[in-house]
Structures are given as C-alpha cells and as structure tokens.
Write a structure and sequence with these properties.
The chain is about 45% helix and about 20% strand. The protein is of the alpha+beta class. The strands form 3 sheets. The chain has a 4-stranded mixed beta sheet with strand order 4-5-7-6, with helices on both faces.
C-alpha cells in the first residue's frame, strides 16, 4: 500500500470534526470513488486499531460519540423519545437505550450501547422543526420528543410536564396532522 495515500486518508479522517463515518462520507472526504479500494484501505486501519468498524459500512474513531452513531446507523433519523425526555426531566424511569425515530423500527446493539429506533411516517420524519442539529447529531427538542412518543404510544405516562414549553408544543402539533393526537395533547396539557 502507498503509505502517503494511507496517511492522507487517516489524517483526513482524524482532522474531520465528525467521529462517525459511513463509507460514502469517507469517499467524499478524500475524493476516492473506488469503494473496493477504499474498503481495503479502511480495513487496514481497522486491523491496526486506528479505526473501529461497529457495523458494516460504518467507521468510527476510537472515542466516537454514541449519539452521532445513532444518527448515522439509519438515515434519516433523529434522537428522540425516552432518551430526550429522560434528559429533560419529563420522565424519571431510567432507560439506558439511545432512542430515535427513523423510517424503520429496529433495535441494534453496538459495543456497550443499545440503539432503539421507532418507525414514524416519512412526512413527519423529514420535517426539521423542533430538531436541533449539532454536527452530525440530530436531536429532538423535549417538546418534539413529547409529541413523537404520544404519536407512537397513546397511553404513555409522563412524570413531569413542567419542563415543556406548551407554546412550542402547540406550534409543532400541525407537523403530525392528527386530530386524535391534538385532542390527546390538549387534554394532557390541561391536566398537567
């Protein structure tokens, strides 16, 4: 292997702010269109321990961000549901999974993390309102996560609605285009 090309590849990957890469990401980063050759070069770094490959076609730096991996495993997706609501203090029940919504329902174990994806309609998934993007990580606001979970589970129990911005919830409701959800939310907010 040409060592200067390989060092350029590893230098490009480690110079990038991201910690998780798909094969396409690295291809665009270094301008390599031959995926077979690129895969061979990347596998060399996996064998040397400079990169990890938690899933086929996904490469990560040794100290990668698990939230970034959650958003890269299945695209489009964003972190939401219990994970966000727990961090916001809306639900108290501890859940170690990183929960997200995507175009499919699936649970994936990678190293010490479980990534749980719930399927949501494509027209809801593509709306970016109520989703914060930080680098490669897309995370729902607590209000969007609240609506996502109610949309997917009508009988979900919330411990504390005080951290939620009720005006923001009202602004986000049209995204779901659901009279049932709107009625459920209005009842919950009136009681809580």
């Amino acid at each position: 292997m040409n060592s200067s090309r390989n060092s350029d590849l590893i230098l490009s990957v480690f110079s990038d702010a991201r910690s998780v890469f798909s094969l396409n990401d690295i291809s665009m980063l270094i301008g390599e269109s031959n995926f077979k050759k690129l895969n061979e070069r990347l596998n060399y770094y996996v064998r040397k321990g400079k990169l990890l490959r938690p899933r086929k076609g996904i490469y990560v730096k040794p100290n990668y961000n698990p939230e970034e991996l959650a958003c890269t495993l299945y695209t489009p997706s964003y972190i939401s549901l219990e994970y966000v609501l727990q961090k916001a203090g809306v639900v108290f029940q501890y859940d170690e999974r990183i929960t997200a919504v995507s175009y499919l329902s699936r649970s994936v174990d990678v190293e010490s993390h479980t990534y749980a994806y719930r399927k949501i309609k494509g027209e809801i998934l593509i709306v970016t309102q109520g989703i914060n993007q930080t680098g490669n990580v897309n995370t729902a606001t607590p209000e969007r996560a609240f609506l996502d979970i109610l949309y997917l589970n009508a009988t979900y129990y919330f411990d504390n609605l005080n951290p939620l911005d009720k005006n923001l919830i009202t602004k986000l409701l049209p995204v779901y285009n659901s009279k049932t959800l709107t009625a459920r939310v209005k009842k919950l907010l009136a009681n809580g």
